[in-house]
Amino acid sequence: MPSKIKVLQVIPKLGYGGAETGCYDLAHYLYEKDCKSYIVTSGGDLIKFVDKKKVKIIRLPVHSKNPLLIFINTMILTFIILLLNIDIIHARSRAPAWSCYFATKVTRRIFVTTFHGTYNFHNKFKKFYNSVMVRSKLIIAGSNFIFSHIKENYSEFINLNKKLLVIFRGINVDYFDQSSIIESDEIKLKNKWEIQENKKIILMPGRLTSWKGQELFIEAINLVNIELGYEAFYAVILGSDQGRDLYKKKLIRLSEQYRMTKQLKFIDNCKNMALAYKVSDIIVSASIEPEAFGRVAVEAQSMQKTIIASNIGGSNETIIDEKTGFLFDAGDAKSLSKKIMRVLNMDDNLLKSLGIEARNNVIKKFNVEKMCFSTYSEYKKLIN
Prior knowledge:
Layout: E1 6-10, H1 18-32, E2 36-41, E3 55-59, H2 67-84, E4 88-91, H3 94-107, E5 110-115, H4 124-130, E6 138-141, H5 144-153, E7 163-166, H6 183-192, E8 200-205, H7 214-228, E9 233-238, H8 245-257, E10 264-267, H9 273-279, E11 282-285, H10 295-302, E12 306-310, H11 315-318, E13 326-328, H12 333-344, H13 348-365, H14 368-383
Parallel strand pairs: 1-2, 1-4, 2-3, 4-5, 5-6, 6-7, 8-9, 8-11, 9-10, 11-12, 12-13
Helix pairs in contact: 1-14, 2-3, 6-9, 7-12, 10-13
């Protein structure tokens, strides 16, 4: 085995999503394990936090699905692989994965992919396009849910020469730790959100898109209000519309219809998500389609906050129902409202013990160190 494994990760953009933070965390971990670590990306907000002494950033337009650019990226990646003598090329999205696939064919280097989502398909062409994610030597599924999805839909592309396994996504449990939050910062954030100090907060984080279930959340809050009144708590929808202004307008109209404009806050972003969780009492993930992993549920548990999530997809794996959080019937506003009311009426000591159990669950199964160690271990097996 060479003294230093040289790993090139390829990702469209290095933003704040689960795939992106996983790429970022692994890149720095590899350096600590005496590997040479590179990231090829088109850009992104997370780049400014990369330690350039540890991880080399190479900018290429790998976010593009344009066939000509995919071909050009293939040529450039082939050159980079040979120039830097890369051992492993790890692709984390479909468009750049095609460039990686062809480049590794030419250079005869090891190709690894991480299946971060379900990549739904409606025709044979889309399925073929998605199939690049299972054309690698090592296929990493981010959850058992994704593992099952791959087995059910892409088995014809998997043979005995390929390895398919689950490595759960991990989060930084030191960052998502309530003891790291300063009380004065909590007061500042509540003032910024125009929230009274003595009221409970129900937080729903996530980008504004219909399948994330913000509409369902508003419907559920309305049902809670019918039972408890408008003064019992605040509700916060935290996330950018990413250009989906029509959907956001629809949500605002719905909140106006239910007369909750003072109670419900729309917040575009929060740079300190740990702080956003800390000031909140209940965290909701109301996706009406399966989450591949469900990062919100894991982050909330790490912060010892009560999480209520849809009983589909990754949440079934990350939450132990009634022990580390609560699951409700996906797509059912009444089911969600009942869970919210139940938690609002629960004893504080019981919620505290549930929060401790939740954090232990994350530390044991979903911490970033475990994710990085498992991936690095698989890299070493491939090289040997």
